[in-house]
Write a structure and sequence with these properties.
265 residues; alpha/beta; Collagenase (Catalytic Domain); 7-stranded mixed sheet; two-stranded antiparallel ribbon; binds zinc ion
């Protein structure tokens, strides 16, 4: 297993060549833990240390059209989606992306590939970050991963066997597939929607439903799937076309907020 024992990776995949949906409607902030009985296994873990520190990571491979200024703006905009919610719900920003004096943090910390969970971003006292979680663009997507995967978030627990809220993270990484998406000439997913989704994984959220059956995880294919699961930022697929920008689903809905409250409140 390439990720080291205990690593969990969560992907968002594209549904190619389909028609993009409309924008989600605005919903009011949810400040309580709200989770369906059918979603009880959709929380994967949590950080004891908050706010969670993130940074724009080093590039892996040459990326045509790479634009650090724009990348920073995308990270800031996406993190602020979570922070606007968490300010209301928790009273503090859940994601820390700022470097004093220089705007969005940039970090060259890099393992040169997918990380092993032996890497520890938390100080040994586990009360602070020694390194930030990086958001990395990959020019070459690992061949053993499907090219339909737009992005991948890896989370590493502190202890081997853990589940749900009992699972405490020690590191994470977000990787974007620039071999098959985003780059010039490739399908263009909405980057904010994808980053907001991946940040949800980084914070400990699983998908609102999955395309496989499991206890406590709703089936995305069910005709009874609640609309709130389908419209959630954490729904596992985003529609992408060759021609135009991908589906925009970048606002947290009641289901995203209610489940996040169960983790951090
Ligand atoms: Zn996902």
């Amino acid at each position: 297993m390439r990720f080291g024992f205990g690593a969990k990776w969560s992907a968002v995949v594209a549904l190619l060549f389909a028609t993009a949906c409309g924008l989600p409607r605005n919903e009011k902030s949810v400040t309580q833990c709200v989770i369906g009985n059918d979603q009880l296994s959709t929380i994967n873990g949590k950080w004891d240390v908050t706010p969670v520190r993130i940074a724009l990571g080093g590039l892996v491979g040459a990326v045509e059209g790479s634009d650090t200024v724009n990348d920073k703006l995308l990270i800031q905009t996406s993190a602020e989606v979570w922070n606007r919610f968490s300010m209301i719900s928790f009273g503090y920003p859940i994601i820390d992306y700022r470097e004093p004096g220089s705007g969005v943090r940039v970090d060259s910390w890099d393992t040169g590939g997918f990380p092993a969970c032996s890497i520890d971003l938390l100080a040994t006292d586990e009360k602070s970050f020694v390194d930030p979680i990086v958001i990395r663009k990959r020019a070459a997507w690992p061949p053993d991963l499907s090219e339909s995967v737009i992005a991948l978030t890896t989370t590493c627990p502190r202890r081997q066997a853990c589940k749900g809220l009992g699972c405490r993270y020690k590191m994470s990484i977000i990787e974007l597939n620039l071999q098959h998406y985003f780059a010039p000439g490739k399908p263009q997913p909405d980057p904010i929607s994808i980053l907001v989704h991946e940040m949800g994984h980084m914070l400990g959220l699983g998908h609102s439903c999955e395309y496989r059956s499991a206890d406590g995880i709703p089936d995305c294919n069910s005709k009874y799937l609640p609309k709130a699961y389908k419209n959630a930022v954490m729904f596992p697929q985003f529609l992408v076309t060759r021609e135009g920008p991908g589906e925009v689903r970048s606002k947290l809905n009641a289901n995203d907020m209610g489940r996040t409250n169960c983790i951090y409140k």
